TrEMBL record:
Domain CRAL-TRIO: 51-210
Family matches, as Gene3D superfamilies: CRAL-TRIO lipid binding domain (3.40.525.10)
Gene Ontology annotations for the cellular component aspect, listed alphabetically: membrane
Superkingdom, taxonomy of origin: Eukaryota
GO terms for MF: phosphatidylinositol bisphosphate binding
Name by which UniProt lists this protein: CRAL TRIO domain containing protein
Organism: Asbolus verrucosus
One Pfam family in the UniProt entry: CRAL_TRIO
Length: 256
């Protein structure tokens, strides 16, 4: 078993606005969710072959500089169209979980912004993205890690991609869904983000996607032992003296 360390607890306090009871619940959820959603967490270690293959297919990375309102920008771009088309959508959720795990130890940000370039997405892949998978992705990000969505900027979205977002709308609060913006071209990013945050690949002054990707790969190597320990992080919910709010994850009982 492993316990979240001091830095992890400190960041959880910050993102939960120093509310002790809420932070305790999130720490409790930290253990519970890994047990009750084993189909995601049992295969999320970045050292597993499937996860390594995913990281060779795409850039899904946090950019190094924060925005002026202290938000962290994540960039998503598919590198290998054919390989990604055959990949498991759950691996994308697992990668997001791993990014958030790193952030609990190294990052302090008050919100998240996602820039998603769908230029190489295929209908074949989108057909595998079920409503339940979208639901898990949104709720793990929001409830497990308490992340605050400040904005999502979508580039090169085909009509079938927009249908996915129509499904996501069912699971999102209207206030959050209103923060999703479909961009006609890359000039949209220059209107919405600081120039030193935008990667060179998109006409900005920030580090290139490849450079940021290489830094992330080094981080996964550095934290290898941590991820191996997380593989052993499970709880026996039957030993609880009373039922908790975490018995029903995301509002529904979870058992697989």
């Amino acid at each position: 078993h492993c316990v979240p360390d001091e830095k992890c607890i400190q960041n959880m306090l910050i993102i939960n606005k120093f509310k002790i009871d809420k932070t305790k619940q999130k720490l409790d959820m930290y253990y519970t969710i890994r047990t009750q959603m084993a189909h995601i967490f049992d295969f999320s270690n970045p050292n597993l072959p499937g996860m390594k293959e995913l990281m060779d297919m795409l850039y899904f990375i946090p950019l190094p500089k924060l925005t002026t309102d202290m938000s962290r920008v994540f960039f998503f771009k598919i590198r290998n169209k054919d390989a990604f088309s055959d990949s498991d959508p759950y691996n994308g959720i697992r990668h997001l979980v791993n990014l958030q795990e790193l952030r609990l130890h190294e990052d302090v940000a008050f919100g998240d912004i996602f820039v998603i370039d769908f230029a190489n997405i295929t209908m074949k892949f989108c057909l595998k993205v079920t409503p339940m998978k979208l639901f898990y992705m949104l709720k793990i990000h929001e409830r497990f890690f308490s992340s605050r969505l400040r904005g999502s900027y979508i580039l090169n979205a085909a009509p079938f991609v927009k249908r996915l977002f129509a499904i996501m709308k069912m699971f999102m609060k209207p206030k959050l869904f209103s923060r999703i913006k479909f961009c006609k071209d890359v000039s949209c990013l220059h209107e919405l983000l600081p120039q030193d945050v935008i990667p060179k690949d998109y006409g900005g002054q920030g580090r290139s996607l490849h450079e940021s990707h290489e830094v992330l790969m080094e981080k996964f190597v550095e934290y290898r032992e941590r991820f191996d320990r997380l593989d052993q992080l499970r709880v026996d919910e039957t030993l609880r003296p009373v039922q908790t709010q975490n018995r029903k994850i995301f509002g529904v009982s979870v058992g697989f």
